[in-house]
Structure formats: C-alpha cells, structure tokens
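#onboarding

Welcome to the new folks! Below is a worked example of what a typical request in this channel looks like: someone posts a single protein sequence, and someone else replies with the predicted structure as tokens. Don't worry about understanding the tokens yet, we'll cover that in week two.

Example request:
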Amino acid sequence: MNRRFLWSLGFLLFTLSASAQPADYYRYPLDLPCLLSANYAEMRPDHFHSGVDLKTGGTTGHPVHAAADGYVARISVAPSGYGRAIYIAHPNGTTTVYAHMERFTDALERYLDEERYRAQRSNIDLFPEASRFPVRQGDVIGLSGNSGWSLGPHVHFEVRRTKDSRTLNPIANGWIRPKDDIPPRIVKLWAVSIDTLLGVPIHGTPRAYAVQQTERGEYTLADSACVPLEGNTYFILESTDRKNDVSNTFGVWRVTARVDGETILEFEKDALLFSNTRYCNASVHYPMQLSSRNELLMLALQSGNHLPMYKKVVDRGVVRAAEGERKQIVIDATDDCGNLSRLSFDAIGAPHSDAPVRPQGVVVPHDRRCSFTLREGCSVTIPAHALYESIFYTQEQLDSCHVKMRSDRIAPLSPVFRIGDPKIPIHNSVAVTLFCDLPDSLQARASLAGVSAGGDLYFAGGRYKEGRVNGSIRSFGRYCVVADTKGPEIAASFRDGADLTNNRSIHFKVHDNFSGIASFSATIDGKWIAFEQDARRGVLTHYFDDRRTPRGQMHRLVLTLRDGAGNKTTWEARFRR
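Example response:
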C-alpha cells in the first residue's frame, strides 16, 4: 500500500486534540537533564515566546531526537530567527519544531544541498513529501547548535497544532517536565485609575504597592495597605517565576483576579497563533514593560485586544466601588508546573479625583482609519485596528532634535518629525510619507530613519518617489529622511591567489553601516555556490564540495552583497584548491 496514503489515513484517524494526548506521547528531545532557559509565552519585545528553550550546557553538537513518530514536514534555513530548523509532523495532528540547529542528519543535509543548488538559494524553506523522511520517536534528526538569532547554544522546541500552526504549551500540558516546586514570585502590585474623555480611555499614573510574603506562596500588601478605588480602577501584577536547578527567570502561566469571590479576569498562556503574538504589547502595561525584566500583566482588557488567552473577563477587568465600600481582592499567579502564589488585599471606594485633563491631539478611534498631513511635510495614515484602544494623537515637526553625528555621513535630509507617542504600542503598520526634495544622486538610496531616545539613527525602510519617501512604521517615535550611499564591507579569510588545498571551508566577515545586508550571491568559476549565513555575527561560510570545486585547480570566486538601500559591493579573488 502507498506510504503516502498510509500517512494520510493516519492523520485522518488520529484527530484527537493535542491536549488529550498522554504525557509520555512526546519524549524529551535531548539526552541531557531537562533544564530550561525560557518557557512558553514569555513576554518578549513585540511577541510572545512561542516555545521552550532547552539548555545544552553552553555547548553545541548534542544529538537532537524526534519527540514522537512522524515525518520531516519542513526544513528551514534562515540567517536570523530560528536559523536551521526541522519540523516533524505527527499522526496525532501536531507538529514539533527544533530550532537553532547546527546540523541535520546526512540524509537531510544531502537533500538540503540538492534543493539549494536547484533553486540557487542559500536561505530556503523546504517541504519534502510525507513519505521521504519518516522518523520514529527517539531517532536522531541532527545536532544542537546556536544558529539564527540565538544568544547562546540551546534548542528551541515547540509543539504546534498542524492544521493552523497554533503553538501549544508543552509544560502546562505535561509533555516537557522540568523540576519545579517553586511558586511564582509576586514582585509588586500597581493600581491605575481610568476615565473616559471623548471616547478615549485616560489612564492615570500607576500607583505602586509593595507586597510582603506571609508564608510560602501567600502574599499581602506591605503595612496592611488598603488600596483606594478612585472611580474606575484596574490592577497590574508584576511577577516572575523560577525553576529548580537554573538561575533563569520565567513568565507565569495563568493569572486570575477575583473581587469578593467573583472571577473578573482569567488569563492563561496556551494555544497561540503567530498572527496574535503582537498582542503581548496589549497584555502588559506597555510603558513600564519596556524597561522591566519582570512581567507586568495588565489585569484589564483593552477594546482592541483580541487575544484569545483571556478565558474570562467581566467588565473588562475594571473594579468599581461606592465611596467607603470595601472590596476583597484576590489575585492568583500559577506557573506552568502548577505552583501557585496568591496576593490578597482589601480595596475601598474613594472620592473621585479631579476630572481628567484633556490631552493634546485629535481623537483616533482604534477601529477607524485616520489620516493626518502637516504642511511642513509629513503625512501619516493609521489603519483601522492598528491601535489597541482609541487615543489622542499628535504629530509635529521638531524645531530642534538631538541627533548623533555619524562618521559615515548619514544625517537627516529632512526635518525630524515626532509621530505619535512612543509609549503607545502599534499592532499593525502605520503608513508614513515624508516630503523631501533630494538630488538625483541620493534619491535611490533614501529611506526613513528613526531617531532613538539617545539620538541614534536607525534604518526604518521606505523608498523615495517623486519628492517624498514612503514607508511604514511599527512604533511611534521620531522619524526623518536619510540617504545611505555606502555599500557593505567584506573581509575574506584568505587573500587573492591563496592555496586553500587544506581548507574545508572559507568564510567572510560582512558588515553594513546602516541599512543592513539585504541579499548576497556568490559564484565559483561562474557557477552559483551556497553559503551558510550567520546574520547575528555577520559571517558567511562556504563549505567546499569536490564535485563542484575540483581539487588541483585555480578557481575564481565572486561575492556580491546588497544592503537595504540598494548599495552593492563585489569582491573577487582567485585561489588554488
């Protein structure tokens, strides 16, 4: 019987939900102790962490095993992100992912090599037929590494629902079982009064309340404080978590808030679609989260936050009380291994403070498209649902703005404009046009640049056309027009005419001053060759193949790089092999 038909039949018959699988359906992918450096759905800049990071003792080259029976459904090689990654589909309707690999099995490497040269692409996504690479639980699929955007050797491991790539929590579901008997640590409580003006939520300044631990896993407010509820109030829970035998900190799994015994908000980290991952910016108090290593979960739901991790929300999590009315508040924080910490305190209705002061700017409803143009030369379009809640919006030309001078002559070619408030997160891209007449020599190399709080310029994309630079931004802040006219730099590991007879590989250090390496291509004797690209370290490596680069001959290598602004650098040399 056809093997592909058998696999299709298997997936049809085994459609049980992933959470119904026994805890031992998946084996631990490494022959090492189960130690983690990151857990599922931790808050990261602009995204939730989609899997768990498995420690490899600070070294690479450890065998990585298939977690369950299945077949290799995808092989991905990327310069950043997951780096080298394998995806294994399983007959229970899930797919496991193994990222930041150093090397795949010989059979997979041969297949990767063939497909790279057929497509003439070093960075590639491959989807082999289901019958081509079947695996059994425990089979070695490759070696652990540090590829992609990895800050140290480890294996990033995920369990996804195959049909929609929804990631699942492997610890809370019992598939990965680290040693953990440590309850989460509740660091601080914050209270925020909120009012509405012209349909826009006006958030008060967060008020901090110190907490004290009365016994293991039990917390109350220091000095028996009673939180005043000035009108409408919501809370922010600052917390962190630990696991046994590691020094890393982790995010909590579930947070539940109750008022007088009634649950008003329950937030649980599981079943996340990648299209929803940016909602992490709405799940935390964004301005404070930007500078904190702890998680600051906002126990309230903004009207534009559609993240399905909220299992229950009553009145958007806002707490109200009449003047003098007491409320008992209980907030539970549970980690993914079931350890629980509880914060209990009293709150009391307090007199309303002064009416909210109207902020500067115009109202932008979160569910409506709005456009704004300044005569000075800045046009902005905010699409519907780009914001998590309605805001008062401002944009202006800055008469003075500190911008650090750069040695590569990159400097503002237009006024600097402040577009929105950088403390307000954006969910979808916002279109920006800056008007600027440029000489012909600079037009093709012009782009938007952001200006950091410290005055540094950073590449923000965009292209020049007919007296303006059009682009899109994913965060509010300060922006201007610049031109990047300098091409990438290339430093080779050998000189022209070198004898590389004993070399297994060659490598190049590549660097771009501003817009980054956008693409590269290389040939030996006029024929395309593959490279391994390490974007984080700025290294390109080519491994010699006797079939393609015969020994005992002189060869000519040509390497061409392009940056994000379109500048091109070509390097060439001859060598003997």
